[in-house]
Write a structure and sequence with these properties.
With 118 residues, this protein is an all-beta fold. The protein is built from no helices and 11 strands. Strands 2, 4, 5, 6, 9, 10 and 11 form a 7-stranded mixed sheet that branches. The N and C termini lie far apart (40 Å). 31% of the residues are buried.
């Protein structure tokens, strides 16, 4: 079992920055691919970025260069540094922990709201 708690969301002006954090409980963090997803009103949830247990990262085209995902296995925490924020980045951001090989699992956090104003 993995519990995920996100923090760091809020209201920011366009062009500003925010850093989201996701603290995970349980030993499975170290073997999980950690991801950040977002869901804007009326839209489907989409992958923003993820990072494997080995540190390989992957980004949605819309956030490449602007966002950086990282993880600290000593703190069981994954981060999403968001720079040059745009209004279209407004969404609820969710942390995800997943593993596609045995032992398979997927867990979600409760989400944190990010609002980018013009």
């Amino acid at each position: 079992q993995v519990q995920l708690v996100e923090s760091g969301g809020g209201l920011v002006q366009a062009g500003g920055s925010l850093r989201l954090s996701c603290a995970a409980s349980g030993p499975s963090f170290r073997i999980a691919t950690m991801g950040w997803y977002r869901q804007a009103p009326g839209k489907q949830r989409e992958l923003v970025a993820d990072i494997t247990s080995g540190g390989v990262t992957n980004y949605a085209d819309s956030v490449k260069v602007r966002f950086t995902i990282s993880r600290d296995n000593t703190k069981n925490t994954v981060y999403l540094q968001m720079n040059s924020l745009k209004r279209e980045d407004t969404a609820v951001y969710y942390c995800n922990a997943a593993r596609s090989t045995f032992p398979r699992f997927t867990y979600w956090g409760q989400g944190t709201q990010v609002i980018v104003s013009s």
